[in-house]
Amino acid sequence: LSPAVHIQTSRALMVISLLLGFFGIIVSVVGMKCTKVGEEDPVTKSRIAVAGGVLFILSGLCTLAAVSLYATRVTYEFFKESAVPINARYEFGSALFIGWGAASLTVLGGSLLCCSCPAKEQRGQQYYRQSQPSTAREYV
């Protein structure tokens, strides 16, 4: 017996969410200013970080859609008139609340990464190295 369509759809959305989150982690690590991977230009690094943020937002939205789809189906089945007694029907479990929390935090994290885009006045500027202080002192 195959599971119902809403369960298969939720599974597919969760797998897509996991893949988007995985690639979001990789792209975000490359886009961090503290890493030496990729470009040295800070504008390019911040654009890569924004791309990672977009992947995280998409991952969170897929998770939110999957969990909400399943919750909608559980609610529909619970209130549907049926011969199944109320104590034998499905109810919201802790996994649904964990899924909603995870989706919210993933979207929030992706939004924070998207805020790392440089302002327009900073786009042309480069970071300059500060000259090293001299250690030799002149004694008179």
Automatic annotation (TrEMBL):
One of its GO terms (molecular function) is structural molecule activity. InterPro entries: Claudin (IPR006187), PMP22/EMP/MP20/Claudin (IPR004031). The keyword Transmembrane helix applies. One of its GO terms (cellular component) is plasma membrane. It is a multi-pass membrane protein. Keywords: Cell junction, Cell membrane, Membrane, Tight junction, Transmembrane, Transmembrane helix. It holds the Pfam family PMP22_Claudin. Its main location: other. The chain crosses the membrane at residues 12-30, 50-71, 92-113. Gene3D superfamilies: 1.20.140.150. It is found in: Cell junction, Tight junction; Cell membrane. Belongs to the claudin family. This is CLD19 protein. It comes from Herpetotheres cachinnans. The lineage of its organism: Eukaryota, Metazoa, Chordata, Craniata, Vertebrata.
